[in-house]
Fold this protein.
Amino acid sequence: MIQLHHVNKRFEQFEAIKDVSLTIDKGEIYGIIGASGAGKSTLLRLINLLEVPDSGAVEVNGRDLTKLRGKKLRDARKSIGMIFQGFNLVANKTVYENIAVSLELSNYPRKERRSRVEECLRFVGLEDFMKKYPAQLSGGQKQRVAIARALANKPEFLLCDEPTSSLDPNTTAEVLKVLEDVNKRLGVTIVIVSHEMDVIKSLCTQVTVMANGEVYETVRTKPKGIQHIDNNPKYFVDQLAKDGEVDRA
Ligand SMILES: Nc1ncnc2c1ncn2[C@@H]1O[C@H](COP(=O)(O)OP(=O)(O)OP(=O)(O)O)[C@@H](O)[C@H]1O
């Protein structure tokens, strides 16, 4: 379980995140949506302390990450994988090496690294791509490699920052299917930031709408048939309420 308690984050004078508290239960696919600049990515990055909060607590399975330093923080972070809109693969390394590097950094037992890389690539359907370089892959394949890399250390949580925003609709569907498998078959809790309502609609079990650095509302829903997007946060909630059964959290 992930819990944020009264978290605040400023960039100089600008208050990017204001007193945000939320709970993400094990097994959820938790969406964070909202207009551009609402604070979605910052909120996601606070969960693994890529952004350090100015105040408040970030608890992962009951441990406050803001109190951990050095090896203890690195170990805690192993339970949290992350993928990005731009994939963040290393261009001059092969698919195999991109994944193996994360096992090296975490001191994964040397003899088991190869089979773990193979296992992760099989999971995302790219076992035949080990020797390719990122430039030889499509956008969807790059994101699947990034997912395999994020899974390598067997995380409990996967943070996804706009994972399909640079992909076309078909490739988006392919990546969403992999993320759904990660949740259903591996039991990984997923937190996904997206401005695409279709992504939220097809995947999420709970959704937080952000506006101006604050939680506007959190709803549990299985929305259907959402077509448009609007910058008014009330719009997101109204759409979710209209298209599915919404329990206000
Ligand atoms: N490192 C930083 N330094 C200064 N300001 C920042 C930094 N990171 C984010 N911000 C500001 O904080 C606000 C929230 O940014 P954030 O990226 O979290 O928004 P977002 O909702 O993810 O937006 P988008 O959908 O456009 O990516 C924005 O106004 C942004 O300019």
